[in-house]
Amino acid sequence: MATGNQFGGSRRFLYHWFRRETVWRALKVAGIVGPILTVINQYDLLLNLDFSARLGFKTALTFLVPYSVSSYSSARAYMDKERAAS
Predict the structure, then answer these.
(1) Alpha carbon distance 80, 76 (integer Å)
(2) pLDDT, tens digit, for every residue of 6-49?
(3) Please, how many CA atoms are within 13 Å of residue 79, restricted to the half-sphere of its CB?
(4) What is the predicted pLDDT for the residue at 19?
């Protein structure tokens, strides 16, 4: 069963996830890593100029992965820093 402290931790985590600094950092990471992963994973479709809604969806997911990883690690780092300070 979840305690009030766990819910408070979830709220703090979401607060840090959506902090301006976290979002900006994650956008920069996704802007660099996303195109690299897209080329690695979809090079055949890109070379054939075979653009479709499916490719657009897969590309969006490819950008979402580094964005999410960066956001998660930043939020956890902020929470760890808070925990160490208290």
Answers:
(1) 6
(2) 557 899 999 999 999 999 999 999 999 999 999 999 999 888 88
(3) 17
(4) 97
| Nearest-angstrom CA–CA distance, 69 and 34 | 12
CA distances from 53 to 15, 56, 57, 58 (A): 33, 5, 6, 9
- The structure's pTM equals 0.82
CA distance 60 to 4: 35
Cα–Cα distance between 62 and 35 in angstroms, integer?
8
Q: Which residues contact 25 (CB under 8 A, 6 or more apart)?
A: 70, 74
Which residues fall within 8 angstroms of residue 16, CB to CB, at 6 or more apart?
22, 74, 75, 78, 79
